[in-house]
Write a structure and sequence with these properties.
By secondary structure, the protein is mostly helical. The chain is 67% helix and 2% strand. The chain has ten helices and two strands, in the order ααααααααββαα. A hairpin with a 5-residue loop joins β1 and β2. It starts with a helix and ends in a 6-residue tail after the last helix. This is Secreted protein.
Length: 223
């Protein structure tokens, strides 16, 4: 076989391999995107918007989050820890009536502490913690963003992060969804539930549903 023929065969094989790889990626692309969209829900749309509509760039970012944080296993909480977090959140909600900004700042602090206790990145690494939370609690992370924006604005000497009292109330309500999700026993906890003094076995989130009523009914004052 001549040298020229060998070179031609090598080139043909290389072209075939490249074409096959491109076709495989194109075939997998939509399915990969659909999988990310299902997993991240509203986070997927936010990522696309952040990348000015570039879905490929958004999907690369989300896929990197999954690769970095997907193997994380949430640490279980002891019943006394759950109780302590519940009490602190209820106090923050009640404080909102007279001091909304301070209550939102406390909510931000509580979410950071609780996420750290469950095994998510901690020690002030907010962006990394948020990215990890978005992989495992994608449908509830926006509330954390909103309360953190108020807390950061206060730290920078600004006023409420551009939010009025009603917007801060909505941020607190939205952040509560992530709080409940983090407080709830996961499958890695063995499905443990705490036992109340009356003998009823209830999850902390359900047991605490009566406490936020004042938070929803009363009109908060501007701080």
């Amino acid at each position: 076989m001549s040298t020229g023929l060998i070179i031609a065969l090598i080139v043909i094989v290389a072209v075939v391999v490249v074409v096959a790889a491109v076709l495989t990626l194109r075939a997998r692309g939509p399915r990969h995107g659909a999988s990310l969209k299902r997993r991240f829900g509203p986070e997927y749309d936010r990522a696309v918007a952040r990348h000015d509509g570039d879905t490929k760039a958004a999907e690369r970012e989300l896929a990197e989050r999954v690769e970095r944080h997907g193997a994380l296993r949430e640490r279980p909480l002891e019943p006394v820890e759950r109780e302590r977090y519940e009490v602190r959140w209820t106090a923050a909600q009640e404080r909102f009536v007279d001091a909304p900004r301070e209550a939102v700042v406390e909510a931000d602090r509580l979410l950071a502490e609780l996420a750290g206790a469950r095994g998510f990145p901690a020690d002030g690494h907010y962006e990394d913690q948020l990215a990890a939370l978005s992989v495992h609690h994608a449908h509830h992370v926006e509330g954390y963003r909103r309360v953190h924006r108020v807390a950061q604005a206060r730290a920078d000497g600004a006023h409420n992060g551009g939010m009025g009292t009603e917007e801060m109330r909505e941020a607190m309500v939205e952040a509560r969804a992530l709080f409940d999700d983090l407080l709830r026993p996961s499958r890695h906890d063995g499905g443990r539930h705490r036992t109340d003094a009356d003998g009823d076995r209830t999850s902390p989130a359900r047991r605490d549903h009566h406490t936020p009523s004042v938070f929803h009914r009363r009109q908060a004052k501007e701080s």
